[in-house]
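Each field is set out underneath.
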Amino acid sequence: MLAIRVLLAGILLGLLGLARPFVNCSAPPGASVDIRTENQTSVSHSISTLLTRNLQDVFGENDPVRRRAAINELFTEDCVFYDPNKGVYRGRDEIDRIAGELRATHHDFRYQPIGEPEEAGNGGRVRWVEGRPGEAPTLAGTDFIIARDGRIAAIYLFFDKLP
């Protein structure tokens, strides 16, 4: 009878989203975490990989189908993107929309990390520059992410001075 009560309590806490404090969701720096994509295949990403792929496969991708597939793989459904100039975007659809708008106006720009991604607990950051290949960078920034269950739950954009 006690086992049934514990099981039911666990199910109820899970349904209410209260079970998360009892689960260790952090990973040591450089560790891989197991996630499930839309088709439920297992994919392993480190926080560094999430940071790098966000630059290249989401905000650096011109093809909308490939970009959306990357968003579905890399971001949680309830993800949030904080842009210091334009506000807050919630959910995969909004991230897809804003990345698409950016690519439409800067289709030939490339993001280049200017250092290795750094990790701490379930977060990380990467510094980058943006510009046309072969030309001086026109913009610099830092992406800071919070990961949950091996996906990006929140991303914070900071604009930096050009190096």
The mean pLDDT is 81. Strands lie at 33-36, 42-45, 75-83, 87-90, 110-113, 118-120, 123-131, 139-148, 151-160. The longest strand covers residues 139-148. The radius of gyration is 18 Å.
